[in-house]
Amino acid sequence: MTQRGAGRDEYDDVADAVVEERQRPSVVWIIPLVALLVGAFVAWRVLSARGPEITIAFKSAEGLEAGKTQIKFKDVEVGLVEEVTLEKDLSGVVCRARMVAGAEAYLREQTRFWIVKPRIAGGQVSGLGTLLSGSYVGMDPVVEGKSARAFTGLEVPPVVTLQAAGRYFVLRSSRAGAIDPGTPVFFRKIAVGQVVSSVLDETDDFVTTRIFVREPYDARVHTDSRFWNASGFDAQVSADGVTINTESIVSILVGGIAFESRGRHDDATIAPAETVFPLFESRMDADKPIYTRTVAFLLNFDQSVRGLKEGAPVEFRGIEIGEVTDVRLEFDQKTARFRIPVMIAIEPDRIEGVAADQKGLKRENLEKLVASGLRAQLKTGNLLTGQLIVALDMFKDAPPAKVLWAGPAPEIPTIPTPIEEITASVAQFASRLGKLPLEEIGADLRASLDALRVTLTKSEDIGPALATTLKQVDRTLASVGPDSSVNSELRRALLELSEAARALALAAEQFQTQPNSVIFGKEGSQ
Amino acid sequence: MSAREVTALEASCASCHDCGLLTRVHRGETHGLHCPRCGAAIHLRKPRSLERTWALSIAAAICYLPANLFPVMTVTSLGKTQADTIMSGVIYFVEHGDWPLAVVIFTASVFVPLMKLGILFFLLISVWRRSSWRPVERTRLYRLTEAIGRWSMVDIFVITILVALVRLGNLATIEASAGAVFFGAVVVITILAAESFDPRIIWDRSDEVGR
What we know:
The complex is a heterodimer of chains A (526) and B (211). Chain A is an alpha+beta fold and 526 residues long.
């Protein structure tokens, strides 16, 4: 109220000053604050748990579902497929996936993705769990290399994940022979690795097979190890009987590769990764010594080479020193003559003394040899099949000839198959023919004819006996006539038989309609 | 003063919230009043009604976002896990031709909470601006808000029943997710907000202007 007192009544209708408590903000404001904090916290958690977004290209989206299909590594979820779209040119599908936080470290160029679904390969059944849970995308993480966000998915799961310890080797063979990714690799009948891939080379006709050998068995692969195709089984027939050899039941079913190292080995001979080995067709091939060095020669035969095939052996005085590599027929337009050039490959390592000489046969040595009578000749290798072999020998009295150096390979002169060989065999046949006991055969024949004549003369006495026999037969037939007792009995028997057959038919029908009646009896006849 | 009803406030009277007894309140003495008959606290208006309603409405609005963005339910069936938000559930039912169910879920879980929030903010702003615009309709809106609010809990009940019933181990399991908590919070907080709003304020403001 006014203090000075003047005109106190004049201001009666002045409003009273109101003492108001200072209002603090209500406690209720905590609620939106808490809601904001919790909301922000949850949003932060969700956002921080989100990892990078990646795209994976697949040929087909079989089993992929947007928002449902997970990306897993070792069965731990590391991502989720968010969207599956077709590629613009319809060549495949692209799936966009969100990885979990921290997955950046494993997304490198080498990282592989594939769709896990039930599969039977390499003797193993995998992905059975996905029958119920649906497919998922498998991941094989890598920690080295350039970071990447776009990937191309594999069509088949990798046989060997990148984490697996071991080493890769390369095998080369002329054909694949039941070897697929996942085929086991054996060492002394223990499965120590798997085939990773098997592809035909682009440049040549070899099949390149990549295999993976696990630690610690990879140290067993030495530079001189022999690999062979252990598919199926080896059966050997020898004086001891039949021996059947196989690496394992699995290798019979799905094939396999086996390797072995011979002799003593130390760390120095351990093969480095990616070493290329030849892959042999069988264990026997692998056991054979290998001659990598060959020297080609050309032979020209004027006679028929029927029975001479590629791979036929080339022998020198009965010792195999090489093989035939090519047999052709050529027509010379100028001289109007046919020629049959035969290419042979000699393996000089088979001949002691030559093996040390790395350049093979020297030119002057060959000329010297031919001058002193070295000739090639066709010989019968197998009397049964008529297969021919090429035989090299020294013919002292052969007509003089020279080595021809004009062709693709030095040409060794040939001599025709000696006529003596043919005449010898004809003579042999003739002598066998001569040894036949023709005179004895004639005597035997005469004796037989005599005996026949005696028998025929005796047959005159048989006449009356035959007549009696016929009469008896006639009587017997009469007793079986329509009014005979035998006949009536026979008829009764037949009637009974037909009744029995009818009963059997009824039983069969009963059995068909009510199979249980066999055990429980006819219905209603308990 | 026009020929209109005198409010209790103008007559310095207040009625007890509990027993309805009309009591005289002296100016300035607005705190610590009690009903002489039943002993309940007596206020001329709900204390700090606007402030509380504002706070709760804002809290509900904040919770509304995660309630719709996060999944409310996670169904694990035969190893397949599927998390559904409210909207994805509605879309699922629409796609499978279950129109009535989709409409029910949409109305109860999306439309009603949103409408409630809208009405609350509209009332708050109109009162704050001292608007005298159509007080009858606004009061009706308020009554609507109070009446339908609780029905939004249907969703939460369905989830709780499913979570309790479907416990078949690997075969099928249903779990409530973060979204359900936020959704429950939205429903409860909007109910509280509607409760704390004093509709008489609508009339106070329009009366002041109309005077």
